[in-house]
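Annual report, structural modelling task.

Input specification for the NAP complex:
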Amino acid sequence: MTSDLAGEGSREVRLVWAQGRGGAIGRDNTIPWRVPEDVARFKELTVGHPVVMGRKTWDSLPPRFRPLPGRANVVVTRDASWSADGASVAGSVAEALELAGGERVGIIGGGEIYRLAMEFATELCVTEIDVEVDGADAFAPEITDEWALAHRGEWQTSTSGIGYRFVDYRRARQG
Ligand code: NAP
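The model returned the following structure:
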């Protein structure tokens, strides 16, 4: 089903993630690599706009980094009693998008929330990380043929020594 929000026209709903080989995005509620260039790009893509995340991703942020500064933080949970300083709470991704408002919103994970948010997304901003993650337990959503490649950067080497590249997609058609 296509949501009204996805059809709103000018609103950008941007999913932002970094994935290792095989689409791995996390292990034991952490991100299993360190690529400072990806952190910098994450900031560039999200600062100044609301961000939506799952409750587990909120928990995964070191307390000193949450709420993520310069961004309204909206957390999706099924637990109506959940609260945290600096976070707005939503019971679904659709509610989170309503609450977030604005012309652009960033959906910042994790795996469960990316999958739920795909129907609302207008843009996917992916960092491909050239690492094998043994024991990965969170994964990126499938990028189907509803998506067209908008930009594929060159492979680069991080200061941490890991290979990475930026790959962006725009919606080719509504699913
Ligand atoms: P998540 O998507 O961050 O959060 C899952 C939580 O969202 C659920 O436990 C539930 O919260 C809530 N939720 C899920 N479906 C819902 C629904 N239909 N309605 C309402 N609430 C719902 O969890 P995850 O998939 O385990 O991802 C976390 C992992 O991803 C971590 O390893 C993190 O480090 C990683 N991560 C990686 C990236 C990256 O770019 N590489 C980015 C972000 C996160 P309650 O249990 O409170 O009800």
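The longest helix spans residues 36-46.
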